[in-house]
Amino acid sequence: MPFESLRDFFEALEKAGEVRRIKTKVSTDLEIAEILRRVMYAKGPAILFENVDGSAMPVLGNAFGSMRRMEIALETQNFESLGTRLTELLNREIPTSVLAKLRSLPKLAEITGYAPRVVKQGPVMQILETEAPSLSFLPALKTWPKDAGKFITFGLVLTKNPESGSRNLGVYRMQIYDEKTMAMHWQIHKRGAQHFKMMAEQGKRLEVAVIIGADPASTYVAVAPVPEGLDKYLFAGIIRRKGLELVRCQTVDLEVPANSEIVLEGYVDPNDIRMEGPFGDHTGYYTPEEPYPTFHLTGVMRRTEPIYLTTVVGKPTLEDAYLGKVIERSFLPLVKVFQPEVVDMSMPAAGWFQGIAIFSIKKRYPGQAKKVMLGLWGLGQLSLTKIFVVVDEDINIQNHDEVIWAITTRADPKRDTLIIDGLPTDTLDPASPLLNLGSKMGIDATVKTKEEGFERGWQELEVPDPIISKKVDDKWPEFGLGD
Ligand SMILES: Cc1cc2nc3c(=O)[nH]c(=O)nc-3n(C[C@H](O)[C@H](O)[C@H](O)COP(=O)(O)O)c2cc1C
After folding, report:
1. What distance in Å separates the CA atoms of residue 265 and residue 253, rounded to the nearest whole number?
2. Residues designated catalytic
3. Mapped to the 3 state alphabet, what secondary structure does 324-340 carry?
4. Centroid of ligand 1 to alpha carbon of 205 (angstroms)
5. pLDDT confidence of 174, banded at 50, 70, 90?
6. Out of 6-10, 67-71, 104-108, 226-230, which region has the weakest mean confidence (pLDDT)?
7. Among 53, 77, 351, 356, who pairs with 387 as Cys (CB 3.0-4.6 Å)?
């Protein structure tokens, strides 16, 4: 059975020995962040801070900060299978014959089971505040000394596409201004920002709910760059293989997971734009202040004793790297739908998701590596990736030494580097010449063919003599040199 809540997931982590409880009093003002970062850099456990100065609530951090914890969260060791589940549903053939229709019935029932359903009551409704709601009960963190203030860093921001009604969950940080207002830091390319723009063009406010502490599948989908049009609650159901139970918000027309810890209801006003930041970001630099719209609180729903989920970011590798790795694995099947020659992809954590991505391909024709790059720069959030490296399928791209070997032996900078200017860049890229606009670099590190103008003929790869190799294999145990 999938986890229904953050606390179910937390219990499983604790049983697996993946949690450390800290009873010493700690402060939300830089101290918790400093502890969490040290633990994350040391590849340590999830931490539950039970004694948080000025707050009755325990604070949970680093809950997703290892591959083992991600496996527990999503109940699989094969993250690619999550993406395959999605592509199989999207690729479903339309049954034409009666027999085919009958055969597809169990599958249709399965999809129906993945859809969310609205229920009347849920634990998140234990306390409802609609008269004088306030943000002051939250143990939000100040995470770096020059941050503009305290931020909610792991809220799932729920919005609805005003035209299609399709719901989005995105993790966007929020800077708390006062008891009622916060900055909404959805970057221009994200779906939340798109929904906001659609409403702003009509001069209307966009209703928003911020979920803090939900079941792990909902948390994963909020970070995942799914194609526009796919309702993220449905996607969470597909990941969990069971639909979510939702309850209606009190002051906005939105539904939230019934088992959430805390829900903040409100709206984002196109006429209230304020400066957000600076914020010590996951690039390792402070993102400077920029204008963002303001969230206005209209209601709070919460459990009587909620757990406050948080994370901290900074120069890689921290907790978000593991979420990124799972996204890389689970989105590989989707990437292959668009670029079938792709064999594997790697988004090294040091490149903070959007800095660099490496692809191996099964190359069949001249120029194919560059074709793959151009295709992927047009695909969802991969369009924000600054540098692509494409290698042949014989390179294990999860081993970055092999990638460097391929670049340095198979690429000529003049012939094999593609530089394109004037494309969207990640909002956080500190080196981008303009905010959200800059250039891309692609390195084609595949073996070059005659058709690609490589007349010299490719040098032969070194391969051991097979007879000698077999002889050494047989004698190897005698040498006492290990496996
Ligand atoms: C810890 C963490 C913090 C994030 N903060 C932000 C943020 O402040 N703004 C933003 O646009 N994306 C942020 N992201 C990335 C988005 O959650 C991610 O791009 C996601 O796919 C949302 O995009 P979508 O709403 O278009 O689906 C963050 C991700 C993580 C893991």
Report:
1. 10
2. 281
3. HHHHHHHHHHHHHHHCC
4. 21
5. very high
6. 104-108
7. 356
Tell me if 31 is assigned to some domain.
yes
List CB contacts of 362: < 8 A, sequence separation 6 or more: 341, 343, 393
The C-alpha atoms of residue 436 and residue 186 are separated, in whole angstroms, by 13
Q: Is residue 357 domain-shared with residue 305, that is, in the same domain?
A: no
Question: How far, in Å, CA of 87 to CA of 338, rounded?
Answer: 11
Using the mean position of ligand 1's atoms as its centre, give its distance from the Cα of residue 153 in Å: 10
Ligand 1 test: best mutation among 169, 172, 282, most atoms within 8 Å of CB? 172
Please give the Cα distance from 38 to 318 (Å, whole number).
9
Q: Which of these three, 294, 309, 324, is where a domain ends?
A: 309
- For the stretch 190-222, pLDDT in tens is 999 999 999 999 999 999 999 999 999 999 999
Q: For atom 22 of ligand 1, which residue has the closest CA?
A: 170
Q: How far is the CA of 167 from the centre of ligand 1 (A)?
A: 15
Predicted local distance difference test score (pLDDT) of residue 483:
85
Nearest CA to ligand 1 atom 18: 223
Nearest alpha carbon, ligand 1 atom 5: 172
296-311 pLDDT per residue, tens: 999 999 999 999 999 9
* Residue 212 Cβ < 6 Å to ligand 1: no
Q: Is 243 in the pocket of ligand 1 (CB under 6 A)?
A: no
Residue 478: per-residue pLDDT: 97
Determine the structural domain holding residue 51 and report its residue range.
6-94+123-309
* Secondary structure in 3-state letters for 36-57: HHHHHHCCCCEEEECCECCCCC
Atom of ligand 1 nearest to the CA of 232: 27
Per the listing, tokens 């994963």 go with: 220
98 band by pLDDT with thresholds 50, 70 and 90: low
Read off φ and ψ for residue 248, nearest 5 degrees. -80, 140
